[in-house]
Design goal:
The complex is a heterodimer of chains A (371) and B (391).
Chain A: E1 6-11, E2 23-29, E3 32-39, H1 47-51, H2 56-64, H3 71-86, H4 94-122, H5 127-147, H6 169-191, H7 195-201, H8 209-215, H9 220-224, H10 231-234, E4 247-249, H11 255-282, E5 301-309, E6 312-320, E7 329-333, H12 335-340, H13 343-347, H14 352-362, H15 366-370
Antiparallel strand pairs in A: 1-2, 2-3, 5-6, 6-7
Helix pairs in contact in A: 2-3, 3-4, 4-5, 4-11, 4-14, 5-6, 6-11
Chain B: H1 9-54, H2 70-80, H3 91-99, H4 102-107, H5 128-136, H6 139-149, H7 153-184, H8 189-198, H9 207-220, H10 232-235, H11 245-270, E1 276-278, E2 281-283, H12 285-290, H13 292-320, H14 326-353, H15 357-376, E3 388-390
Antiparallel strand pairs in B: 1-2
Classes of the chains: A alpha+beta (371), B mainly alpha (391).
Chain lengths: 371, 391
């Protein structure tokens, strides 16, 4: 079964750089990876099954716990899907839509900052970790100011938003956004032109556009391979159609390109945020909820709706029987889970050190993979 | 009438020999050893505080003034922790692992001239440099033994990486010194320093060798960007994954001691040791001797300040660089550093044969000036459009 010089190593579930409880069963020859087999399920909580036994609004806090570093986008995906099922997507007030976009983009920034921190520290550069956490802390403070929570936000409701923005929130975010691009430049000054960083990332885990599409990969890994596919543009939701932003795409589909794509996405997020401020100020205060019945009981039917989460296409598939307040069936299409499936193909032939880079570059959150 | 107050002629001779060859060396070694160990402990605190400064955070600041008592708190913690020995480990080798790197690291402190001889050198060995190289190269055995005896796959990989790395980088490490030996014509560290004070410090004519030495001493010590053997994000903690309490502390002690040894070596070989002068001008050995004991202490202070500079450089590197990959590390060692070191020896040899040693100074100064110009020239505007923008 094994050659004499082959060795089997359990990479995880308790390992500093598997970003949670991922276990990768490695077959290695010296340090070269012959085969890598991700074994998941250590964080399985049966979220989808739980959704069948809870009223729709009760599900929202549970969506926080899936991708726990990007809970605002998880909320957004779920509430939009239910709204689509109820057919009230068009009724959402403009202010609520803009608030959702702002929270999503802030969440994208914070998620990408966490990704950069862990990715860099996995490759041995420890300083970017602290720099990114300095800014991430501020973003989390904005979340706290808005909804009281920093990580599991529970910040959206079916039909709108729970609360209006607190006084001074927009000004604070504006001040942060103004200086944030300089911060991105600062992270880049440590890494982008660093020769060791380039050596560790260029040509590692190359995904051709065809392979990436075949694997169903979405988000920055897909765009890193040069495919221009962003659901904010491809299947617009909320008020993204009227916002100007660019979709960064890579050329070679390696770890370095994925890194560049994410760095550029942070800049684009600040660009979107900057456009949102005047639009939000133009809307009437307090107009944040559509008029819907207290009891949410969507008509019979099924719907699949997906949004661009920081990690890729986050989709919800909900079946309603039209009689109860619960979903008959709810299925989640988490981007991390699908993106993770390409790991063996990407890792084969690389060294153990590269596996760490690959896990980092896919940007998985195990809460979302296992659900 | 005691022996000490009125020593006989024979007694005096025995006494003098005893003093010269045993008592004084032991006293001097003890003092140097204690100072160095204090630096080792302080280094831990300095490193953490400095990393804090680099990384926009505070570092330890709770125990004592500015966290200085952390130096004492850490060893106490290590002593009180439970000492876990894995049941499947190879006991003898497991215990030898942390101890072996310490012994050469401690012995080497006898051989380093801290200040003007004879007072501030413990022993003066005419092949001191060879002896130091021989001793420091044994430090790898402890790491291999520890990694293998832990009976853990990650430790084994860490041990193997460390073996390959330290053996590979021993070669450019040794080769880079050859240039210095050719110029100074001695293996005696005191002679090397005294050569530098009447000529230029060796880093000027031997700038390439100095660079190679700096890089390979980083690799020898398994420090960032060459910290692959313990690479915490890949191999958990590498060869010391299974070590806890004081055994783990011994590994740390060995590593930091070796850092100081290597810093002492680079100062002695390339940066003028305890002197602060070139071409016979400035604080040379003779000037320092003329100032008596004070001059000696001043020389030792200069030496330790220089050593601290290089220790801080280790910390700076650690805060800045990502980690190399294993094969890239080997490529750098065998395909770049060793040919470069050999070329350096060749070129140095040509200059010495031609009797044009002074010409090397100008080449060295030119190289340093060019490097400085490259490093400090106005920054190009950052290339932002690295990713294509579709849409």
């Amino acid at each position: 079964m094994f050659d004499v010089h082959e060795m089997e190593v359990n990479f995880g579930p308790q390992h500093p750089s598997t970003h949670g409880v991922l276990r990768v069963l490695l077959r290695i020859d010296g340090e070269r990876i012959i085969d890598a087999k991700p074994i998941i399920g250590y964080l399985h909580r049966g979220t989808e099954k739980l959704f069948e036994h809870m009223a729709y609004p009760q599900c929202i806090p549970h969506t926080d716990r899936m991708d726990y570093v990007a809970s605002a986008t998880n909320n957004l995906g779920f509430v939009e899907t239910v709204e689509k099922l109820m057919g009230i997507t068009a009724n959402i007030p403009r202010r609520a839509q803009l608030m959702r976009v702002m929270l999503s983009e802030l969440q994208r920034i914070s998620s990408h900052l966490l990704w950069l921190a862990t990715h860099a520290i996995d490759l041995g550069a420890m300083t970017p970790f602290f720099y990114t956490f300095r800014e991430r802390e501020q973003v989390l403070d904005f979340f706290e100011a808005y909804c009281g929570a920093r990580l599991t936000l529970n910040c959206m409701r079916i039909g709108g938003m729970p609360d209006d923005l607190p006084h001074g929130w927009l000004e604070d975010v504006e001040a942060f956004v103004d200086k944030f691009e300089a911060c991105v430049d600062e992270y880049e000054s440590l890494l982008t032109n660093n020769r060791i960083w380039k050596k560790r990332t260029i040509g590692i885990g190359v995904l051709s556009p065809e392979d990436a599409i075949d694997w169903g990969i979405t988000g920055p890994p897909l765009r890193g391979s040069g495919v221009e596919w962003d659901l904010r543009r491809a299947q617009p939701y909320e008020c993204y159609p009227e916002l100007q932003f660019e979709i960064p795409v890579g050329k070679n589909g390696d770890t370095y390109d994925r890194y560049l794509v994410r760095m550029e996405e942070m800049r684009q997020s600040t660009r979107i945020l900057k456009q949102c401020f005047p639009l939000v100020r133009a809307t009437p205060e307090g107009d944040i909820k559509a008029k819907i019945s207290k009891v949410i009981r969507p008509p019979e039917g099924e719907v699949y709706h997906s949004i661009e989460s920081p990690k890729g296409e986050l989709g919800y598939y909900i079946v309603s029987d039209g009689k109860t307040q619960n979903a008959y069936r709810c299925h989640v299409r988490p981007p991390s889970f699908v993106n993770l499936q390409a790991l063996p193909a990407m890792a084969r032939g690389h060294l153990v050190s590269d596996l760490v880079a690959l896990i980092g570059t896919i940007d998985i959150v195990l809460g979302e993979v296992d659900r | 009438m005691s022996y000490w107050s009125y020593p006989s002629q024979g007694g005096r001779r025995v006494n003098k020999a005893l003093m010269t060859y045993l008592i004084w060396p032991v006293v001097k070694f003890s003092i140097a050893f204690i100072i160095v160990q204090v630096i080792v402990a302080a280094m831990n605190w300095v490193e953490r505080r400095l990393l804090g400064l680099f990384q926009a955070r505070l570092g330890p600041n709770r125990v004592g003034y500015k966290g200085l008592l952390q130096i004492i708190a850490d060893p106490i913690k290590f002593l009180l922790k439970e000492d876990i020995v894995p049941s499947s480990s190879e006991k003898v080798a497991y215990f030898l692992g942390p101890v072996l790197p310490l012994i050469p690291a401690f012995i080497v402190f006898c051989l380093i001239p801290y200040g003007p001889p004879p007072t501030f050198t413990v022993t003066r060995v005419n092949v001191g440099l060879l002896l130091i190289l021989a001793l420091t190269s044994t430090a790898v055995y402890g790491i291999i033994l520890g990694g293998w005896a832990s009976n853990n796959k990650y430790s084994l990989m860490g041990g193997l990486r460390s073996a390959a790395q330290m053996v590979s980088y021993e070669v450019p490490f040794g080769l880079s010194i050859v240039g210095v030996l050719m110029i100074t014509g001695s293996l005696d560290l005191v002679t090397i320093v005294r050569y530098q004070e009447v000529n230029a410090w060796n880093f000027i004519p031997q700038i390439v060798a100095c660079f190679i030495f700096l890089v390979s001493m980083n690799a020898e010590n398994n420090r960032t960007p060459f910290d692959l053997p313990e690479a915490e994000s890949e191999l958990v903690a590498g060869y010391h994954t299974e070590y806890s309490a004081m055994k783990f502390a011994f590994f740390m002690l060995g590593e930091y001691s070796m850092m100081i040894v290597n810093s002492c070596l680079i100062v002695t070989l390339f940066f003028g040791g305890w002197t602060l002068g070139m071409f016979g001008v400035g604080l040379t050995t003779d000037v320092l001797r003329g100032m008596g004991m004070l001059g000696g202490l001043l020389g030792a202070a200069i030496f330790f300040v220089k050593v601290m500079m290089f220790l801080l450089m280790y910390v700076w590197f650690r805060a800045t660089f990502p980690r190399f990959r294993f094969d890239q590390l080997m490529d750098l060692g065998w395909k770049f550093m060793i040919p470069l070191a050999l070329a350096n020896i060749f070129v140095t040899g040509i200059f010495i044969l031609a009797g044009q040693e002074r010409l090397m100074y100008w080449i060295g100064i030119g190289t340093i000036a060019l490097t400085a110009f490259y490093l400090f020239k106005p920054k190009r505007p950052a290339a932002k459009q690295k990713v294509a923008h579709a849409s």
